[in-house]
């Protein structure tokens, strides 16, 4: 299978970390989805990455669909509980982390997308997104009572949260998210010690 991605994307990183944790073989194709000549929309009509192209040529998107598919490929190192409350809990953590990533991406696009003039950029819109980020991170800090976000082993919840925190460090280095969130800071440090996170860290 082939993963089409973009190195800085936190959603792509989530998929890459899951591939590494599940030890699934794949090829990686970096696609600049912001360039006018991108052909990503022939695979994903929404023009977004990550997109996983299966052996038969079918394309899977978005990241939540892809990670669910990958986790089901083998029972080894299960990252998503099969059913019930535990499953809902992990998926809710993922939704929270994805929401933080989405808000960060929207804030960054508002500030930097070259299709917009300086006068068209809205500080109020950026502030609205960063407020979501703040609230999201506070909720994560409150919810993190043990070594892992959910249950007592690594799950998709930790992976998604780690990717959101990594994207903050990558694109919003000025945000001191660690100051009031020691448990998240500790989780992030422990995640970075894993090969799956260390090998997928994007450089600014
Ligand atoms: C979000 C993917 C996304 O926003 C998912 O896969 O979970 N809900 C989707 N990808 C961005 C790259 S990034 O900023 O992470 C993307 O491909 N944007 C291109 C565009 O035209 O919006």
Explain this structure.
With 204 residues, this protein is an alpha+beta fold. It folds into 2 domains: 2-71, Glutaredoxin (3-Layer(aba) Sandwich), CATH 3.40.30; 84-194, Up-down Bundle (Glutathione S-transferase Yfyf (Class Pi), Chain A, domain 2). It has helices at 10-22, 63-73, 84-112, 123-143, 156-171, 182-192, 195-198, and strands at residues 2-5, 27-30, 51-53, 59-60. It has a 4-stranded mixed sheet. The radius of gyration is 17 Å and the shape is globular. The two termini are 28 Å apart. The mean pLDDT is 97. The structure holds L-gamma-glutamyl-3-sulfino-L-alanylglycine (GSF). L-gamma-glutamyl-3-sulfino-L-alanylglycine binds at residues 6, 9-11, 33, 47-50, 62-64, 98, 105. Residues 6, 9-11, 33, 47-50, 62-64, 98, 105 line the site of L-gamma-glutamyl-3-sulfino-L-alanylglycine.
Short description:
The protein is α+β, with helices and mostly antiparallel strands and about 200 residues long.
Total of domains: 2
Helix-residue proportion:
40-55%
CATH topology heading of the largest domain: Glutathione S-transferase Yfyf (Class Pi), Chain A, domain 2
Number of helices: 7
Report the uncertain regions: none
Based on Cα principal axes, name the global outline. globular
Round the Cα radius of gyration to an integer and report it: 17 Å
Strand content: 5-15%
Strand order of the largest sheet: 2-1-3-4
Named once each, the bound ligands are: L-gamma-glutamyl-3-sulfino-L-alanylglycine
Run of helices and strands? EHEEEHHHHHH
**Amino-to-carboxy terminus distance:** 28 Å
Which CATH class of the largest domain is shown? Mainly Alpha
Instruction: Compute the number of strand runs.
Output: 4
